């Protein structure tokens, strides 16, 4: 990094001072801290080059490390950082309106700009607020890479629109027939409550696991969430018959569904019934989505592309478990991936990730997957959110493994105090004046001491203005390449508009009609199967010849007319099925 004002740094007054802010705050100004006094030095430096083509054209950057010309780089925390240094993860904290989501979107756009055909770069966006799809769609269209959009409440899974097609998660293909994966997924989708007897929740999970194992045995890799839904809503004798096809299912059926323990059986079945009410939206989503748009995480890892996993904020109880289960599936498959990646090739962005719920797999990503090519960018409101979900130790583990930290304005004293400690201390000189009065008069003296003080105070983190075109964007930035220094940064409103990523003209969400949020009745689910049976019979040449083999001309004409009516009705049914499947 280029340093300015070295003559000033080596002067007798400032040779012990630590530089607080090498970025522009305010514009073209650099600050040093001596005790409680700021020494400002105006910099005779031209402003950095900006341009309307960001993030596609390389501009003259503010560089944190050397040799950047030899590498691809991305824009993180207001600085251009080579891609091979982004094995480190990022944590951004700040209240609503502080600008943390804007900084995430800017960094996300740079990662998306590297996702090109043949690059092998994958970008995964967990979109809790529904803001990421227009950005992702713009880059997917411009760079001709696949875009996989998963939202169990969005109608584009049935009827693609505006160049965006919705997908459904192929849980069967990603579980790969492994019982431990099935168990892990069902524990996430049907969670055990933090309080109360876990017996009932474990019984519900056991029924779901046994049902999934049965369908995996009967239709390897070709079943869906709707099959589990149907099995769990079946009557007790029918459910027991399904479970008895596997060893694990037999044990569940014997302990829960059979015998004289009627209250236990009824309690477990009632619990499963109520859990399925939230599970139904996800099951219906996969049921109505054409099979060619079932998305497999395992297959996605083999190429490049963009994945947007979003939710309906009005139905979080249905969508959040699916998001957590998909994240855990990413973790499982990347844990099995060979390590020693020179460059990160998978960028994962999670905005306001505590609102998705507790994700145990996040500690695995932060701890083990840095060498496997995964770079994670997390944002949340404050450190107390992490402490509440993951405990003090878990929150510190998350923070410790995120080497890049972006600290925006906070309203929380707890987060402000934590940020002060994070910024650390510095040594500086303090002068103390003293006056002594005696009968002979007054004498004055001063003493100077080298002391250790915090670099910032809590008000520095709590008094920053909201992000706006007038005040710009204020934040603090820490990285492994700044020698432990906490940099106070500022971007003007003009810079913000220049850096803000482009968006495609697509809506963030198109709500499904109510009938597609519910599973159809078993009779309607059997209709496609019945249609196929009738179609095969009518098209069978031998059957047609036998059916028309009558001597009476009147009977022959009647049967020909009957066949024509059947074929016409089959064509109408097929049209309705195509409309439902969204693939006319």
Can you describe this structure?
By secondary structure, this protein is α/β, with parallel strands linked by helices. Among the domains are: 83-159 and 293-409 and 464-499, P-loop containing nucleotide triphosphate hydrolases (Rossmann fold), CATH 3.40.50.300; 172-288, Orthogonal Bundle (Helicase, Ruva Protein, domain 3); 522-581. It has 20 helices and 18 strands. It has helices at residues 6-9, 100-113, 133-143, 171-175, 179-189, 198-218, 225-232, 236-243, 247-257, 262-288, 297-300, 316-335, 361-368, 383-400, 413-423, 458-462, 493-499, 522-539, 541-548, 553-581, and strands spanning 19-21, 29-34, 37-42, 73-76, 79-82, 90-93, 122-127, 147-150, 168-169, 294-295, 305-310, 346-350, 374-380, 404-407, 425-438, 441-454, 473-478, 487-491. Strand 12, helix 13 and strand 13 form a beta-alpha-beta unit.
Biggest sheet, open or closed, and with what strands and sense? 9 strands, mixed
For the record, what is the CATH homologous superfamily label of the domain at 83-159 and 293-409 and 464-499? P-loop containing nucleotide triphosphate hydrolases
Distance between the termini: 58 Å
Contiguous low-pLDDT stretches (5 residues minimum) are: 1-70
Question: From the alpha-carbon coordinates, what is the Rg to the nearest angstrom?
Answer: 31 Å
**Dominant shape:** elongated
